[in-house]
C-alpha cells in the first residue's frame, strides 16, 4: 500500500495509477485559488497539471487558499500529502482511471495568517486569482444581480481597522498593495456556475474596492480583468467508498481523492491583464465571447439537474443516475430542454445542441459517477435563481411554454416542506432554509406562499400565467405525488 503522504508514489508510481513525471521542486506559484474543493481539483488544477506534464507552465503553479472553517480539513490533508491528491475518473462501466495531480504547490488557510495570503496575492509572480466559492459566495442580490454592500461579511471587512476575512477583503487589500508598489494589476477568474461569472466578480470586487477607497475602485475597474468562463464537469462529493476503492483496487491511500465523470469542458474568455498559461494546449476552448456557451450549460445541464433533483427525490430516488435511467423522467428532462430551455439560447458556435442534450442524459445516467440528489439540491435558492428562473422569465416575456419549469419550482416548494412522499425527513441545506421551510409549510392553505420569498422570486407570484401553472403542479404533487406530475406533463 502506497500513501501520498510518503511522496514515494511520485517517484515509484502505483500500479494502474497515472503519475506525471515532472519535477515539482522548481514550480512557482502564478495562480492563487480560493475554494479548493472537488470541482477545482477536477477542473482548473487538472488543466494546469496537464500543462506541467507537457513541460509547460512551470511558473503557473497553484497556491490554494481556504477562508471558511470547513477548509481546515483540506489544509490538513493537502499538508500531509505535499499538495498531492488523486483524481479518479469514473466510467459508465464501473471502471476507474486514477491520476495523481501535482499542480497544487502551496495551501494557505487565511484565518491562521491573513497577512500571508495578502502578500501571496500582492507578489508580482501572482498574475491570476481564481475562484470556486459557489454561486452563493458572491455578495450579490439574487434578484437584481447587483453587489450587496449590506452583506455581513462585506460590512465587517470594511469596518475601520478590520483584518480582512472574506475573499473580497483579502484580494482587494492585496490589489491596494500592488497599486501602491507599482506591481500592476492581475486577473480575477471566476470558475463558478453563473451566467456572466466574470461580470459578477467584477461588480463585487470593484464595488468593494470603491467603498473602501474611490480611487482604488477606479483603478480596479480600469486595470483588473474579469474573464467570463463556462465550466462543466460533474464532480460528486467524495465518499468513504471512493477512498476504499482506491486503496483496495490500486493499493493507494489518499486522505481526500476527487471523483469525477469522464466529460470535461472549459470555455474561457481571452481577457487577461498579466498573461496566462497556454490553456488551449490543454484542451480549453479560449474564445472572444463565452455567453452562448454559458447559457447553454446553465440552462440545459444545471437547470436540468434542478429539474431531476427535487421531483426525483420526492419520488423516492436518491441518485442522479436512477432518475435519468427512468424512461418517464428522462422524457420529462428532454422535453424541458427542448421545449422550454432551448428557445431561450443563442446559437452556440461549433455545438450541435441535439447531440449535446442527448449527451447530457447519458452523462446523468452514468451509474459510475453515483452523484447524489442531495448534493445537487444543495443551495437551491442560489441555483434556482441562476439556472431556472431566467428561462421562466424569458419564456413568460416571449409567450412560450413554462409548465415544466413551473413544475420544477413546485417540486422545490414541496421538497422544502421537509418530508418526502414516504414521510421521511429531508434535510434542508440552503442559506434561506428557515424562511423557505416556514413558507412551504403554509402552502397547503396558501398555494402561493412559497413564491413570497421575493429575494428569490421577485414578483413572479403576481404573474398570472406562471402562478396558474405553479399552483396546478403543486396541487398535483400534494394529491398524487411527483411521479404522477411528471407523467402528466410527459403524456399531456
Please, could you describe this protein's structure?
This protein has 492 residues and is α/β, with parallel strands linked by helices. The chain has two domains: 2-287, NAD(P)-binding Rossmann-like Domain (Rossmann fold, 3-Layer(aba) Sandwich), CATH 3.40.50; 291-491, N-(1-d-carboxylethyl)-l-norvaline Dehydrogenase, domain 2 (Orthogonal Bundle), CATH 1.10.1040. Helices cover 46% and strands 12% of the residues. It is built from 21 helices and 13 strands. The strands form four sheets. The protein has a five-stranded parallel sheet with strand order 6-3-2-7-8, sandwiched between helices. Strands 5-4-11 form a three-stranded mixed sheet. A three-stranded mixed sheet has the order 9-12-13, with helices on one face. β4 (85-90) and β5 form a beta hairpin. It is globular and about 65 Å long.
Key terms for this structure?
492 residues, alpha/beta, Rossmann fold, N-(1-d-carboxylethyl)-l-norvaline Dehydrogenase, domain 2, 5-stranded parallel sheet, 3-stranded mixed sheet, oxidoreductase, EC 1.1.1.17, Mannitol_DH_C, 6-PGluconate_DH-like_C_sf, Mannitol_DH/Oxidoreductase
Summarize the structure.
This protein has 492 residues and is α/β, with parallel strands linked by helices. 46% of the residues lie in helices and 12% in strands. The chain has a five-stranded parallel β-sheet with strand order 6-3-2-7-8, sandwiched between helices. Strands 5-4-11 form a three-stranded mixed β-sheet. Strands 9-12-13 form a three-stranded mixed β-sheet, covered by helices on one side.
